[in-house]
Design brief:
Number of helices: 1
CATH architecture of one domain: Beta Barrel
Largest sheet: 8 strands, antiparallel, barrel
Distance between the termini: 58 Å
Radius of gyration: 23 Å
Shape: elongated
Helix content: under 10%
Structural class: mainly beta
């Protein structure tokens, strides 16, 4: 009897059902890319010098993002131009950490690497996805799809 009551209490405490999402998000963004410039100068007195300046520049791009959330575990396929050379993930998919699925929004951090985990926010009312982090920003319109029934374009 106690086991039955404990089981009922645990079931009541958890969600009635876990939501599953498969989202395809098409949009555009701006990636922060490293850049450098070199210069050689000669003075009127015959002295010369080399100089180099390192910085970043914004590079506009268009791409898509895929998101899968199954049983409270999420993963995201980020735009390639926003990904650094040193990154985690498997087959292009990054884990979504600190995932929170609410009635109005879904929030998480994309686990790109140990120093780069951009913020991910999806407004469930409008379908707008926003990704912001060290590597840039991306905004897209998301639509759900069912991978089991999705038809190929060709």
């Amino acid at each position: 009897m106690k086991a039955l009551l404990i089981g009922a209490a645990v079931a009541a405490a958890g969600p009635a059902h876990a939501e599953t999402f498969h989202l395809l998000c098409l949009g555009a963004g701006s990636a922060n890319k490293p850049t450098s410039q070199s210069a050689y100068v000669t003075g009127s007195n015959g002295n010369s010098a080399w100089g180099q300046v390192m910085g970043t520049k914004d590079v506009a791009f268009q791409d898509q993002v895929n998101i899968e959330i199954v049983d409270g575990v999420g993963k995201i396929r980020m735009p390639r131009t926003m990904l650094p050379n040193l990154r985690g993930g498997k087959d292009g998919w990054m884990e979504m950490e600190n995932l929170k699925v609410g009635d109005r929004e879904i929030t998480a951090n994309a686990a790109v690497n140990f120093i780069n985990s951009p913020k991910v926010r999806i407004d469930r009312m409008t379908g707008i996805l926003n990704i912001s982090g060290k590597s840039g920003n991306f905004t897209a319109q998301c639509k759900p799809y069912d991978p089991a029934t999705e038809r190929r374009a060709f």
